[in-house]
């Protein structure tokens, strides 16, 4: 069974990852995430929300998909910023040297 086959349409109907793991008889939320990633790469309009309601859902419109992409872009910028600061910390910890 595909994840997209059981997901509701619209962010307001999102289903939490732990519930999807139960429904799909998967080990845990990580398996749901991996399944979602595979199906997204195959073209399924699967979105996820970290705000209430938290969970996975199918985009109900191009605008909803665009909003999800915008949230991904924000996450990417936050991870990039964290990586930059960690690299600076490593630089200070090694007095300018690198660690293999």
Write the layout of secondary structure elements.
Blueprint: H1 3-6, H2 17-23, H3 29-41, E1 46-49, E2 55-58, H4 62-93
Antiparallel strand pairs: 1-2
Helix pairs in contact: 2-3
Write up this protein:
By secondary structure, the protein is mainly α. Helices cover 56% and strands 8% of the residues. A two-stranded antiparallel ribbon has the order 1-2. β1 and β2 form a beta hairpin. The longest helix is centred in the C-terminal third of the chain and has 32 residues, at 62-93. The radius of gyration is 18 Å and the shape is elongated.
Strand order of the largest sheet: 1-2
Q: From N to C, what is the helix and strand string?
A: HHHEEH
Main β-sheet description: 2 strands, antiparallel
SS content category: mainly alpha
The percent of residues in helical segments reads 55-70%
């Amino acid at each position: 069974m595909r994840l997209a086959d059981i997901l509701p349409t619209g962010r307001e109907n999102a289903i939490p990852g732990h519930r999807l793991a139960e429904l799909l008889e998967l080990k845990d939320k990580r398996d749901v995430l991996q399944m979602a990633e595979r199906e997204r790469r195959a073209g399924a309009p699967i979105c996820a929300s970290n705000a209430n309601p938290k969970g996975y859902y199918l985009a109900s419109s191009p605008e909803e998909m665009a909003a999800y992409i915008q949230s991904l872009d924000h996450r990417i910028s936050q991870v990039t910023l964290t990586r930059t600061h960690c690299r600076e910390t490593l630089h200070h910890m090694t007095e300018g040297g690198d660690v293999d």
